[in-house]
Write the structure tokens for this entry.
Amino acid sequence: MVRRAAAAAGRALARVVPVVLGVVIAVFFLLRLVPGDPAAMILGERATPEALAALRAELGLDQPLWRQFSDFLWGVLTRFDTGDSLVSGVPTRELILAKAPISLGIVVFAVGLAVVIAVPLALAAALRKDGWADHVVRVLPAVFMGMPLFWIGLLLIIVFAVQLQWLPVGGVGSGPGEPLRSLVLPALAVALGLAPPLVRSLRAQLLEVLQSDFVTTLRAARIPERTIIWRHVVRGAALPALTLLSVNTAYLIGGTLVVEQVFGINGLGTLLFQSIGSRDFPVVQGIALACALLVVLVTGLAGAASAALDPRLRRAGSADPRRRAGAAR
Amino acid sequence: MTASRSPRRAALAVAALVAALALSACGGSAAPSTPSTDPVSGGTLTFGRVASANDLDLHQQITANNAFAIDKVFEPLVAFDEQGEIGPWLADYEVSDDGLEYVFTLRDGLQFSDGSDVVPEDVVFSLNRHLELGGPLPLEAPIASIEASGDREVTIALSGPYTPFLSELASFSNGILPADFGGASEEEFFERPIGTGPFAVSEWDPNGDLVFVKNTHYWQEGKPYLDSLVYRFVADDTQLRQQLQAGQIDAIDTVPATNAAEIGATGGTVLSETPGWSTEQVFFNTQREEFADVHVRRAIAQALDRDGITEATTFGTAEVANALLPPTITYSADDSVEALEYDPEAARAELAESAYPDGFEVTLLIASGNAQRAQIAQIVQESLAKIGITVEIEQLDIAVFRERFFAYDFDFMLNSGQSDAPDPNGFITFQADPEGFSKSYWTHYTNERVTELMHEGRTTPAGAGREAIYGEIQQILADEVPYIPLFFPANLKATSEAVQGFAVLPNGSVRFQDVWLSEGA
């Protein structure tokens, strides 16, 4: 048992390390390919060449690229840090830890909202296939899927913050309950982007299960419809939905970063945009690395959760739950 | 081309009409609100800004995001007011007849925010550190010595006459800090700096908000009125405006010209529109052979309708520029210089005299993220097409934009010149000194007469003689057009109605010691 767990952990690590290393290398060199001098960004247009040269030396930007890369890699391996911010001098790890709770708050909140939105809609559509609810559910997500996230965010601001004044237009307020209230609209914006594919997939899964032989058998056995739906159909469709959510982690993180900008929330997204603009290499690298780790972690966890929920996956020796769709047939 | 002519004129006319209406609509609120009752003490003001303050070292920083936080903490010996007039601030002063010796007498009972006394040694330490570091906004005056010459006296001797000295000294970067950083290390000191300013730093996230508290030892009796001041970081300017309108923040640092009318017309918000120290310009790289030809530059100047551009892109918030120096700067020649006027016929004739009578192709470089400049670029493109010059617009993000023009890798560009002081020397030197590091603002423009006058301007005592010098410089620049001054943008800020005494300096900073919140705020 222990050996099997160790082997599984080893396999997981073998997948994670190349991914993370790839991200680290790609981000480092891609950033260096982009023109734009951090020293000039910090000092502005009226900085003398002497001041610029002095600052470049202080920031280590006058070092050869291989030297910068080896220092960077050494820092990541030994200190779990991509270096001090070129602009503020604060270690990147501290910056990320300070801003992460807000961004993760939006992510978690958005997932919750997406589930709350998607499950009832998918159920309503699947149970009355080709009924009016089904038509609405098939059309409405298409509308939201065509809209860029920042646009959804702006609409939410105009309606709920500016017109109705129910919620703050942006920022993260202080005081009891305020931060939570401030995160409702940004999380909703992300959730509205995430919910459509979730509804579609869930509806398809539900229909598939509803039409399967074992539901027919259960119905023939006069098991109450309510029990069939909640105990068998919904549970059967939950697993693919979980997978879909984990596959969408990257979208979710990206969406959160965009939405932060629209709502004036000073989280990781804003820090990232700022840092790209000022060519603050260590911070951009740090955030990219953190996001990559998060995506790898979430997909890994989702795989593990699927395996735990569905014994067939364990037997098949595959952690890829996408294969389950085929297995279910 | 004729087909596109009338819509463009029509668009300009419509824009002018809109601007005129907007201007008349917000005419009443253009000036900052004047207190109708006595100031009330207390309260917190939240000031929304699009960039965080990430460094408070007054000798190393120059960008507005940091400078306008630094000047709340540190103050110089002399300072300028909203009109740009220089007067005593931390010290009174006397100048010797030959203009070589300045004796500064510190205010009686002057204290730092930690309650310790300000002594002449603090002044000596502060100015010497700045001299040693140089930094992005250095003391250029030929300073021979800085000495503590009494209990409250500091004497600064110059090795030669230098008229802009007081103006230079009035910069925020010549603020006074405790000698030897009050015993702290340099790094520690600038994390929690101590100065004589109206506010002291209380909480600071270099990538986010900055919270100031009132300096209870401030030398201006009863000021500041506010208990605390919060610089709230809101990266997006749309969000910034909406938070002000929703009452989440009390004042905002920047209002795009497009939104000025809306802010002024919306209930609960007040637009603050004050003259600034910057000039929006078209800059030519005179190292490019086309732009080395003065006829080409003159032709372009005559092909551009500056009035139309100003109206269409600034919505009546800016003043059309005739000369290089904004009217708020001493010896601005805006009303006396004869600039080349909009005249497409004359432009074609001028181009015919150049080596490129049939026109040529060039690239206009602009920074992205600035809607106004993108608009100006399009007008330039259309205007120049009419005289046969094909313009390609290249829009780059600010970091790359800077790298390109720092390397003289551009044909012509849109940018602005900005002064830190009311004296013309800084602005002129930066834009017309071929020996300076910016090589005439990266235009590489060289004119011996201008260089000679520029040197004279620094040593000629204030008065008619000096005025004539800067007048002549500006006239030469207007004739040879290494850059085309388009307009002088105003400082556009906005507050909620509760904010009183909001005084904006011409460099764009706000004097928060004078600000108070009226009842019901």
Notes: Chain B touches chain A at residues 52, 54-55, 62-63, 134-138, 205-209, 232-236, 239-240, 242-243, 245-246, 248-249, 397-400, 402-404, 406, 415, 430, 437-438 (CB under 8 Å). Chain B is about 35% helix and 20% strand.
